[in-house]
Amino acid sequence: MPKETAPTMKLKLTPEGHAVVVDGKPVYVHDDGKEIPFDAVGTVARISALNAEARGHREAKEAAEAKAKAFDGLDPEAARKAVETVKNIDDKKLVDAGQVEQVRAAAVKAYEDRLKAAETTHASQLNELNSKLEKVVGQLHGELIGGNFARSKFIADKVAIPADMVQAAFGRNFKVEDGKVAAYDNAGNRIFSRTRPGDPNVDFDEALEILVDSYPHKAAILKGSGASGGGAQGGSGAGGKKTYTRAQIDNMSPADAMAASKAIRSGEAVISD
186-224 burial string, b = 16+ CB within 10 Å, else e? Predict the structure, then answer.
């Protein structure tokens, strides 16, 4: 049988070497000499439709395979033999013994128990995978947001309290969306960049500075805010407020540091360099 060859077509050219175009479509000459404009847009649309159809077939196949997994481990030949055995039992003897319904119920129950066991196993595995995935995603989000606070140049240069205290106060304003850190104000509105008006991909430090600027007690947490005092723990500063130094806060226990941070945020205390 002769081997079939793929049809060929050549682009039709003018004597000057330019492509011949009809209705915005280049004209090709086929093997039989017929000239046909090539509809590139229609061809691309057709390819897309065929791809979608192929994807639908693949998804249907995968769904059928998933349903078939519920019957993994069942021996088809043994099942057929069991059915034949039941058919061949003397119905009269079963009726006399009053066991017809009993046999039927036992067979149905065994089948249903097998199905339930398979469904329970699959559900348990799925829940375990979902739990592990949620844990990994949570750790990733925590690292992305916490890492930005720890590496923040704005905190290092402008803020008088440690990065973990800043995160405790403003961490809830940051979320991870599509693998990037997004910032929101206290009303739940997305924070846009001021240096790039209209851009929602605001830099972390720029978003944090915007949040701190709107904080009612920002003077208490920013460096060079005019806070005064001798620097002693619980000392009296401006207006009779307690005064803390950054060094004192760094040397506090976690519980005392959180208490000091809360007092600073509420305006009951101030911090000095």
Answer: eeeeebbbeeeeeeeebbbbbbbbbbbeeeebeebbbee
User: What angle (nearest 5°) sits at the alpha carbon of residue 265, between those of residues 262 and 269?
Assistant: 80
Whether 88 shows a pLDDT value over 70: the answer reads no
Comparing 48 with 83, which gets the higher pLDDT? Answer: 48
Which tokens hold the place of 269? 């205390």
Q: Which residues have a Cβ under 8 Å from the Cβ of 235 and sit 6 or more positions away?
A: 229, 242, 243
- pLDDT tens digits for 11-67? 778 888 777 878 878 877 877 778 778 777 777 777 878 788 878 888 888 887 777
Distance in angstroms (rounded) separating the CA atoms of residues 187 and 207: 14
Q: In sequence order, which residues have a C-beta less than 8 Å from that of residue 252 and are 6 or more positions away? A: 260
Q: Which residue blocks in 193-268 are alpha helix, DSSP H?
A: 204-213, 218-221, 246-250, 254-266
H or E segment and range at residue 175: strand 174-177
Given a cut of 80, whether residue 234 has pLDDT beyond it is: no
Q: How far is CA 28 from CA 4, 36, 174, 185, in A?
A: 21, 6, 58, 60
